[in-house]
Amino acid sequence: MKVLAVYNIKGGVGKTSTAVNLAWYASSQGQRVLLWDLDPQGASTYCLQVKPGKRPDRLLRGKVDAENIVKPTLYDNLDLLPSDFSMRHADLLLHGMKKSQQQLQKILSPLSRDYDLVIMDCPPGFTLLSEAIFHAADMLIVPTLPSVLSLRMLKQVIDFKKEHSIGKLRIRAFLNMVDRRKKLHLHILGQRHRIGKQMMQACIPYASAVEQMAELRQPLPEFNRLAPAAMAYGVLWAEIWDAIPGGLKLPCTPE
């Protein structure tokens, strides 16, 4: 089982739309996918039309096992660990735990037989929860706006990983909400190779279709598969597939 974390220090960069659409693409290709909504806003939970049920913070408290909170979605091969406002205390819960950095790994470990891929929709910020995410994930997927401050935030994430010697963690970023009418966006798009191997080639255009996800409560490819942004997410998923450490197993096809 591989674990991807869609993460950024900044809010409003498109983490939820990225997590939901990547989960849709992976599950549509036959991967058994668990999307874990870790943000107290519960945006992924809302977009996938799931009611949280039991308070999700009980999972971090160790009061309930993950398999008892997992909810099915409307889509084959795609389940959800939901979130709600009770998760706002996640850092306080982890602060009082021994080996708090390993807590998310501990929660996910029993699910390794049931899923090929876990995608975490992460809240913004540098927190104890963030550190636990870094230790649980095989790869950070960092949606990055084409702006100077967003690129600075990306560098901080890369530097943090190096300084804390999180050896297995791989970081891959992509430019999100790209508006080719803006000179700065075009400049950063043309220079993104200078950032290094962490910056992927795929980029997602700024599009009203992405905003419709919250209105229709569906992944973008589900209601508009031919939209440029939907196809761009497909390209992004293909690039991530190739970059996942150790790779994912191809689903078995019946004879």
TrEMBL record:
Taxon lineage: Bacteria, Pseudomonadati, Pseudomonadota, Candidatius Mariprofundia, Mariprofundales
One Pfam family from the record: AAA_31
Domain of life: Bacteria
Name of the protein: ATPase, ParA family protein
Ranges for domain AAA: 1-160
